[in-house]
Amino acid sequence: MTIGVPKEIKTLENRVALAPGGVISLAKRGHKVLVEAGAGLGSGLSDAEYQKVGASMVSVGEVWSAELVVKVKEPIAEEYKYLRPDLMLFTYLHLAADEPLTRALLSARTTAIAYETVQEHDGSLPLLVPMSEVAGRMAPQVGAAALEKPHGGRGVLLGGVPGVAPASVVILGGGVVGTNAAKIALGMGAQVTILELSKHRQQYLDDIFGGRLITLASTEANIAASVRHADLLIGGVLIPGAKAPKLVTRDMLSSMKEASVIVDVAVDQGGCVETIHPTTHANPTYVVDGVVHYGVANMPGAVPRTSTFALTNQTLPYLLRLAEHGLKVLSQDPALLKGLNTYAGKLTYQGVAEAFGMDFVEAEAVLA
Q1: Which of 138, 133, 258, 272 has its CA nearest to residue 197?
Q2: For the chain, is the Cβ count within 10 Å smaller at the N or the C terminus?
Q3: What whole-number distance in Å separates Cα of residue 26 and Cα of residue 294?
Q4: pLDDT digits (tens, 9 = 90+) for 104-135
Q5: Angle, to 10 degrees, between the axis of helix 129-146 and the axis of helix 176-187?
Q6: Quick one: DSSP state of residue 123?
Q7: What is the pLDDT of residues 233-286, one digit of tens each?
């Protein structure tokens, strides 16, 4: 099979979908890998490194002509022209927050498999995990910077100093993002509260962090009370493939401290804060009701070298199966089948259909 790796063109997106090590694995199995010239430069990977392991460096048009295109981020409007019926696209899509892309994929009859909805039998989301880990660990860092007065924040040091209280960090969701955010925030010396629905997960978090953070049931009352005392609020809520629930309302925002900070990691799924909208690394924050909002939808793009290798480690086994067996692997691999979002003009992921009131067809039925 021919696999294409385009250069990411989203604002300041420096990751690349495949590190040279991934090319080696594909080439060894007889597959042809086309990499757009300069695709790896943002991650510190030269064209020569790709050529050395067997990749062909090509133009953007040539790379999109491949049978299987693997990316990091969803296609943006200027890439819609490359979508076509005989294309298999493997990337993060987050369609529930992007109706224009959803309609473009359906119109082009493209087979689109989303990293974020590939789901194993135990409910885990293996291709979402590495970037959730990165974004979760970044959230306290970017939040700490945004809290600095020159960046519009309250002028609060996350860890405080002896004799002065540390910042209050409130995290919505105790999944991969929330757990990694808590790890870094605690390491920076903050006071940390996690709100989580699952009692079992609350017990797990209390255990692994040795009681060093506060766990609360994620109820409206607890969210409203926690938001009021937060210096930094981190949103890390996930419903696989669907829009994130709006847990923090505009009314709650008015109760927050002046120049406090929100970092909503869930923004690529619509965000769990009512007033959040996507921003870019070029202009990451804006202010609503005196509260600084950070809404960068591709946070790991700021640490591309770490992110590129972490992503390739996870995606490569699935990419190899797609390259080896093509579309028929979807009928044989339940995890990859759950990743299928669009096929032959049909929408095959229920959460996306519900987000836009569109028709939905079971993936098994459309493939049959």
Answers
A1: 272
A2: C
A3: 38
A4: 999 999 999 999 999 999 989 999 999 999 99
A5: 40
A6: S
A7: 999 998 777 788 999 999 999 999 999 999 999 998 889 999 999 999 999 999
CB neighbour burial string for 58-75, b if at least 16 within 10 angstroms, e if fewer: bebebbbbbbbbbbbbbb
Query: Are residue 140 and residue 287 in the same domain, yes or no?
Result: yes
Looking at the fold, whether 55 and 169 belong to one and the same domain comes out as: no
Could you tell me how far CA 332 lies from the centroid of its own chain? 26
Amino acid at 9: I
pLDDT single digits (tens) 171-208: 999 999 999 999 999 999 999 999 999 999 999 999 99
Same domain, 152 and 275: yes
CATH number of domain containing 6? 3.40.50.720
Instruction: Tell me which amino acid residue 113 is.
Output: I
- Tokens 């120049």 label which residue? 259
Q: Are residues 226 and 154 in the same domain?
A: yes
Q: Is the pLDDT of residue 29 over 90?
A: yes
**Structural domain span for residue 27:** 2-123+304-367
Q: Which of 276, 302, 328 is the last residue of a domain?
A: 302
Q: In this predicted structure, what is the pLDDT of residue 97?
A: 86
Element (H, E) at 69: strand 68-70
* Mean pLDDT in residue range 289-298: 96
User: 3-state SS string over 228-279?
Assistant: HHCCEEEECCCCCCCCCCCCECHHHHCCCCCCCEEEEHHHHHCCCECCCCCE
Rounded to whole angstroms, the maximal C-alpha distance in the chain is 67
Phi-psi domain of 249 (left: phi exceeds 0; alpha: psi -120 through 50; beta: other) = beta
What does residue 271 show for φ and ψ, rounded to 5 degrees?
85, 150
| Tally of domains in the chain | 2
Q: Return the ∠ at Cα 268 (arms to 149 and 200), rounded to 5°.
A: 90
d(CA 357, CA 355): 6
Indicate whether 211 and 169 sit together in one domain: yes
Q: Look-up: residue for tokens 């002028």? A: 155
Residues annotated as catalytic (active site), given as ranges: 94, 268
Mean pLDDT of 320-340: 94
List the structure tokens of 240.
Answer: 């696989």
Last residue of a domain, one of 256, 283, 302: 302
Same domain flag for 323 and 356: yes
Structure tokens at 40: 């790896």
